[in-house]
């Protein structure tokens, strides 16, 4: 079956006045009135959720009353939703979740990899499974298995009771009326695919429904735990406490405005992280979800660095949003500029 996928240019880069680079992808908008719009023709094709799935996966704790069962703190729940940077605060929280479930680091089936934090990479000599950015997700999966007396040795198999429960949870949240495609994620856990539009529905279902208040509170009140130093989603939530943001591999980022109950999803097709950050942050500024006066230097350096420089530091160009995409933003969010950021 041939798809009609047609990504559009979101970000461009000019060097000394000439167009040098273009970054293509999709932007998806969804709101509580079930209005859905896209920039770029997605043809309702499937894309794997990658780490954007983590808060959706973690929402199982509501079904099993896991927070109360293990007396999990909000910080512990946040790290279970995180693509964390492997800093000590993150690894300590992952160990705490495992300890409460009577488990240890060796029970994790994610591989030991270098932490995302460059400072941690320099500080430590040996990387453990705890440093894996997905270790919090794995710790919670193991805890739910222990709570339900499910096998903890095979929890990554897609036919395991835990993963069947995750599949059904994501299917319900995303309102997916089809069998979701499967792949092993980078950490080995099952990862499912929906359309970009249905993933937007999943984020609205999770972050704008009182049923999942536990996840909402833990995730949004602990943005540093939910990501870490220099992470795009962390910085977005630090600038506006009413936003929930989650990045995923493959060029993904989803942002929920919990006050207005709207979702914006982004997919950069070549997964360029700089282009993704610029597309997301610049869009949020233009529509008023982020106050440009609250932009701190660290954000300019990490996620909104639009300058093109030589190796000597001379500025020779810049990145900017494509004009057609800016027109789409204006049409979609003409009245959104009145939103305040608190």
What does the model show?
This protein is of the alpha+beta class. It has two domains: 143 residues, no CATH class; 144 residues, no CATH class. It is built from 14 helices and eleven strands. Helix 4 packs across helix 10, helix 5 packs parallel to helix 7 and helix 8 crosses helix 9.
Low-confidence stretches: 335-342
Q: Give the topology string: H per helix, E per strand.
A: EEEEHHHHHHHHEEHHHEEEHHEEH
Radius of gyration: 20 Å
Class computed from helices, strands and strand pairing: alpha+beta
For the residues shown, what is the average pLDDT? 94
**Number of separate structural domains:** 2
The fraction of residues in strands falls at 15-25%
Tell me roughly what share of residues is in helical segments.
25-40%
Described by strand count, sense and barrel closure, the largest sheet is: 8 strands, antiparallel
Beta-strand segment tally: 11
Basic shape: globular
State the distance separating the first and last CA atoms.
47 Å
Number of helices: 14
